Amino acid sequence: MFPTPDLSHFTRNDYSQIYEPDADSFLLLDALELKLNEILELKPLIVLEFGSGSGIATTFVAKNFCLTPSLFFAIDINPYACYSTKRTFEQNNLHHKHCLNIVQCNLTDPLIERLSSKVDLILFNPPYVPTETSDVKEVIERTYAGGKQGIEVIEKAIEQASRLLSSKGLFYMVALEENNFDTLKELANQVGLNIDIILKRRTLIERLFVVEFQRQ
């Protein structure tokens, strides 16, 4: 089992401005570790994370799955999350081995054309909680408010991933039982992606799972 990236540089004040890694974050790391051989065989050159937050997932992949120098894109609409991802990458001494590009934007809106069919590995721990709308102003609310059925942001991410993924690229995403796997499958199939559940976990308040997408 790979160790969790060092997050000791964060304080309570930091977690008032970014999402503090929780059960869903660690579920994503565990799912990635389950797929270790598959990802190593892929030899990802370009890795992208939607909503990088603390940087825990990007750093975990850079530390354990990319044996040669790789290009990372950490995307977040929250400027403090962008700064936090950079801090975590450096705290774990990865900035000398890999190239980290941090972009403050909404998913990959400004990058989609330039990165089309070039991304080997995509990660996303999305705002998946069903709420009245995903269009919220509070920073922390943005990390969990998923809108109707919790899939407003997820739906857009799946569509963008279908354009970003390289021919053998992989996309790993956390989801909530209420997001409905059949709905996610329909969204994936509409844009030419296959989807499979690779890991499930029940917490005190949620039933979570991680899905893997790849081109049909």
Automatic annotation (TrEMBL):
The keyword Cell inner membrane does not apply. Belongs to the eukaryotic/archaeal PrmC-related family. It catalyses: methylarsonous acid + S-adenosyl-L-methionine = dimethylarsinate + S-adenosyl-L-homocysteine + 2 H(+); L-lysyl-[histone] + S-adenosyl-L-methionine = N(6)-methyl-L-lysyl-[histone] + S-adenosyl-L-homocysteine + H(+). InterPro entries: DNA_methylase_N6_adenine_CS, Euk-Arch_PrmC-MTase, PrmC-related, SAM-dependent_MTases_sf, Small_mtfrase_dom. NCBIfam families: hemK_rel_arch (TIGR00537). Residues 22-184 form the Methyltransferase small domain. This is Methyltransferase HEMK2. One of its GO terms (molecular function) is protein-glutamine N-methyltransferase activity. The keyword Transferase applies. It is found in: Nucleus. It comes from Rotaria socialis. Heterodimer; heterodimerization with TRMT112 is required for S-adenosyl-L-methionine-binding. SUPFAM superfamilies: S-adenosyl-L-methionine-dependent methyltransferases. Methyltransferase that can methylate proteins and, to a lower extent, arsenic. Catalytic subunit of a heterodimer with TRMT112, which monomethylates 'Lys-12' of histone H4 (H4K12me1), a modification present at the promoters of numerous genes encoding cell cycle regulators. Catalytic subunit of a heterodimer with TRMT112, which catalyzes N5-methylation of Glu residue of proteins with a Gly-Gln-Xaa-Xaa-Xaa-Arg motif. Methylates ETF1 on 'Gln-185'; ETF1 needs to be complexed to ERF3 in its GTP-bound form to be efficiently methylated. GO terms for biological process: methylation. One of its GO terms (cellular component) is nucleus. Keywords: Methyltransferase, Nucleus, S-adenosyl-L-methionine, Transferase.
